[in-house]
């Protein structure tokens, strides 16, 4: 975790409050907290590489989901750019096995679509 709880909360809120273009009425936090079981959010500082001492800020999300008809534990990391102008998903795993970003896109699409249907219904 970051040294300052307020800083940790700011980074987490920045990710949770982000809205993707396809679902302008749903935030990442709403979709993930609704879809994944036992959702957990945290933030930490990490080195951007082994070769330099640049610090990156990472928000990590953990939660349970169904993937290919089986329960799995998802871990998604969002990394902020060094100018703090934005962030991107930089890591995704299921049950500690690294996955492709197309898999993250598929899981995220299900989460957003499901919530959009619930809100519409």
**Strand order across the largest sheet:** 1-2-3-4-5
| Number of helical stretches of at least 4 residues | 3
For the residues shown, what is the average pLDDT? 90
Tally the beta strands.
5
Order of helices and strands: HHEEEEEH
Largest sheet: 5 strands, antiparallel
The share of residues in helices is: 25-40%
How would you describe this structure in keywords?
121 residues, alpha+beta, 5-stranded antiparallel sheet
Structure description:
This protein has helices spanning 5-16, 28-35, 101-120, and strands at residues 37-47, 55-67, 70-80, 87-94, 97-98. It is an alpha+beta fold and 121 residues long. A hairpin with a 6-residue loop joins strand 3 and strand 4 (87-94). Helix 2 (28-35) packs across helix 3. The relative contact order is 0.17. The mean pLDDT is 90.
Would you summarize the structure shown here?
This protein is of the alpha+beta class and 121 residues long. The protein has helices spanning 5-16, 28-35, 101-120; strands at residues 37-47, 55-67, 70-80, 87-94, 97-98.
Topology (elements, then pairings):
Layout: H1 5-16, H2 28-35, E1 37-47, E2 55-67, E3 70-80, E4 87-94, E5 97-98, H3 101-120
Antiparallel strand pairs: 1-2, 2-3, 3-4, 4-5
